[in-house]
Design a protein that fits this description.
The complex is a heterodimer.
Chain A: H1 2-8, H2 15-44, E1 50-58, E2 61-68, H3 71-82, E3 89-92, E4 95-96, E5 104-109, E6 113-120, H4 123-136, E7 141-148, H5 156-167, E8 170-178, E9 181-188, H6 193-201, E10 209-216, E11 221-227, E12 232-239, H7 242-255, E13 260-267, H8 275-287, E14 289-297, E15 300-307, H9 310-323, E16 329-336, H10 345-358, H11 375-387, E17 393-398, H12 405-425, E18 433-437, H13 450-456, E19 458-463
Parallel strand pairs in A: 2-3, 2-4, 6-7, 9-10, 12-13, 15-16, 17-18
Antiparallel strand pairs in A: 1-2, 5-6, 5-8, 8-9, 11-12, 11-14, 14-15, 17-19
Helix pairs in contact in A: 2-3, 4-5, 7-8, 10-11
Chain B: H1 2-7, H2 9-26, H3 36-54, H4 60-97
Helix pairs in contact in B: 2-4
């Protein structure tokens, strides 16, 4: 030991190369050591729920910055970093995530995107909500503006997941949850969506309540488009149920005898009261147009298109509003189709024959009152009569053989006169028309069958 | 401390070999020895520095470099001690034979 002490006073020359060695070690290894320690500290925090975590190394000392969601979590994070092998000191720059009151979460939907904002209690909760929103709103952009805060009400995730399902049912609108109170506003995407949302809100977790639900139903729209080029009537939109659906299609078939009916209607709840009573007359008005569109939106009936002549346009404007149920509004935007070129008597007769071969003028059973369903056909007969202004026309009534010959003759005469009067009301001179009733004397089919009798009940136009 | 040793093992080995060589030479070296009073002062200084290191009074990189320097110095001293001791054994074995 004494020798060791004696020799040690001659060890000093080695300190100079040792100092050089130290400088080289410090110069080359400091940064790699700091990186290694930062990785170890980061790994130690893997299981701890933190936000905005930042680890900065200064030698073997760690500057830990993070937002924790509880005091226990904050202390645990600091101690875990301090226990990391190689770490000398931890400079604690952690803090608790701020607590908010009230705890607000919102989802706002516009045409192209859904924006989620407000607060979530934990990063995992926020990720879960975003995943649910993206799954529920596939095809719609989801914008994340959710922050993190303490103070969330119990069962926050359950309530918000339910509300995310509801935002998917909105076309546009906003859902706000403030603590345990929910507010909704906007427009439902589909008919029945408002009712579906109201039903779903009953499943909110216990303690949650709906302060106001101002979600509106989309307009209940029924549309009919008459296209003279393709001779089609396209029905689209909604009807209240299958019975009304069948009734509308049947009525359209009677009023549009020449057109092919394309039925794209769907049954849905939410129809305004008086829907069926309004659609019937509205279709009748459309049948009088050359080309046109009928839009029934909630309690508003909008008719646009070309009437066949001036008086028809005026009659449609006047009668459409009167024929609708109370509380309904009619808007007619009509123009008049330019008059067709005049034709001679032979062509005129041919045009009358064409029209009456495709459809018949209908009357109320055993009466001379013209069925309103025939208004479209009568307008076309009037338009044809206008094209041959110099011709006189015999309007000849026929009946089936159901009644006595006197009764049939009288009924056919009255029906022919009713048609002549209808034509006269359009502005045509009464002297051009002669009403003739022939009863059942000239049947065109066998009166033993209903189909035959229907063919025999007819009005003919004879151009002289 | 374990990290300091494992992470810089090459430099520590070099410090040990340097110390071993210096210790080996010191037994027969005729260099001027450090005066006794200075040795005491230097020993006291070394103790103070060790205390400062253990108390973690020096922050950040300077603290790390202080720890590294002390560990390398300690390894150097161990190398010196082993080198001198072995050289002394070799020298004393040769003297009787001569």
């Amino acid at each position: 030991m004494r020798g060791l002490y004696r020799w040690s006073n001659k060890w000093w020359p080695g300190l100079i190369p040792l100092a050089i060695l130290f400088v080289f070690a410090a110069w080359s290894n400091t940064v790699p050591l700091e990186a290694e320690l930062a990785a170890r500290a980061g790994a130690a925090l893997k299981g701890t729920v933190l936000d905005k975590t930042r680890i900065a190394m200064d030698g073997r000392d760690v500057l830990l910055s993070a937002s924790a969601f509880s005091e226990e979590g904050r202390l645990s994070a600091v101690s875990q970093v301090a226990a990391t092998p190689g770490v000398r000191l931890v400079n604690d720059n952690t803090r608790l995530v701020p607590e908010t009151k009230p705890f607000v979460w919102t989802a706002e939907r516009d045409v192209v995107r859904v924006t989620l904002s407000g607060n979530a209690p934990l990063p995992g909760s926020k990720a879960r909500l975003l995943d649910a929103a993206r799954a529920s709103l596939s095809g719609t952009e989801v914008v994340d503006r959710i922050g993190l805060a303490r103070g969330a009400p119990p069962r926050f995730d359950t309530a918000v997941l339910l509300l995310i399902d509801q935002i998917a049912k909105l076309k546009e609108g906003k859902i706000t949850m403030s603590d345990q109170t929910v507010t909704l506003a906007g427009m439902a995407r589909d008919l029945g969506g408002r009712e579906a949302i109201a039903a779903a809100l009953k499943n909110l977790p216990e303690g949650y309540s709906v302060a106001s639900n101002a979600v509106m139903a989309p307009p209940y729209v029924f549309q009919a488009n008459k296209d003279p080029v393709t001779t089609t009537l396209t029905l689209s939109g909604y009807v209240p149920n299958n019975d009304v659906h069948a009734a509308v299609v049947t009525a359209a078939g009677r009023k549009f005898a020449n057109e092919k009916i394309v039925d794209n209607l769907k049954a849905s709840i939410g129809a305004p009261s008086g829907f069926a009573a309004a659609v019937g007359p509205a279709l009748g008005a459309l049948s009088r147009l050359s080309t046109g569109t009928l839009v029934v939106s909630d309690r508003e009936v909008k008719l646009s298109g070309d009437a066949l002549y001036d008086v028809a346009a005026a009659q449609i404007r006047e009668t459409l509003g009167q024929s609708l149920p109370q509380g309904w509004v009619a808007k007619a935007e009509l123009s008049v189709k330019p008059p067709a070129s005049p034709v001679d008597s032979t062509v005129c007769q041919q045009l009358f024959n064409d029209l009456l071969s495709k459809a018949r003028i209908r009357f109320e059973p055993t009466k001379a009152a013209i069925d309103p369903d025939s208004a479209g056909l009568l307008d076309r007969l009037i338009q044809t009569a206008q094209r041959c202004p110099g011709a006189n026309i015999d309007i000849i009534g026929h009946t089936d053989g159901d009644g006595t010959s006197e009764a049939d003759q009288m009924l056919s005469q009255q029906r022919a006169e009713a048609v002549a009067e209808y034509l006269t009301r359009s502005g045509l001179p009464a002297r051009r028309f002669s009403a003739i009733g022939l009863g059942s004397s000239q049947p065109v089919a066998d009166n033993d069958s209903e189909a035959g009798r229907a063919q025999n009940r007819r009005i003919e136009f004879l151009v002289r | 401390m374990t990290l300091l040793v494992t992470f810089h093992w090459g430099f520590h080995l070099a410090a040990f070999l340097l110390g071993f060589g210096m210790g080996w030479i010191a037994v027969v070296h005729r260099a001027r020895p450090v005066p006794r009073y200075l040795m005491r002062w230097l020993s006291a200084l070394a103790l103070v520095v060790v205390g400062v290191s253990l108390a973690r009074l020096v922050p950040g990189r300077y603290g790390y470099w202080l720890d590294l320097a002390l560990v390398m110095f300690a390894v150097y001293l161990v190398g010196c001690a082993i080198g001198s001791w072995l050289r002394d054994r070799v020298v004393s074995r040769h003297v009787p034979q001569a």
